[in-house]
Amino acid sequence: xxxxxxxxxxxxxxxxxxxQRAWHTNxxxxxxxxxxxxQRSWRANxxxxxxxxxxxxxxDCQRSRRANxxxxxxxxxxxxxxACQQSRRANxxxxxxxxxxxxxxxxxxxxxxTTPEQYDKKFAAQDGKCAICGKHNDECRYGLLPDHxxxxxxxxxxxxxxxxSGLGQFGDTLEGLTAxxxxxxxxxxxxxxxxxxxxxxxxxx
Length: 205
Fold this sequence. Notes:
Blueprint: H1 2-6, H2 10-25, H3 29-44, H4 48-67, H5 71-90, H6 94-111, H7 116-125, E1 145-148, E2 155-159, H8 161-169, H9 174-185, H10 189-204
Antiparallel strand pairs: 1-2
């Protein structure tokens, strides 16, 4: 189906979009709920291979369609999306808002290779603070982010955005961080003693 859409002419695509918009606009609340239930059930029963194939086909279709859009069509598309989102959010119940919020959170954490349960457990263990600098989650612009071992994929802890990015800049390796520490120490023995004392304190904890 995605291949068929990608091969449509601009006129055919516009006719299809107009039909879909009219159909969505004229749906009753009951029909919309039935459609959502059907879609959720269908997605829940997909195999991992089917999900990958569907996502790949959807991405190819979107790239092809967007590459052929004019600037005016892009503007109209953004306006339609904004209007649709505002209308949907305005008619959402409190329960639906909470469900959407939880869904976004699961999706965001999945990108980091963790689950809400793993995140909450680590959050409680760290008292909601960055494992490196101790900054609280409420003080972090993006909140505390999951940091995982790139070799094993295991969740190591939660870090503020600055230190999570910082580890990545050093290659997420002890060698990179050690080289940076050696550079900062230079020829000052007092700085080396400070580092050793700090590390001993962390190990004892």
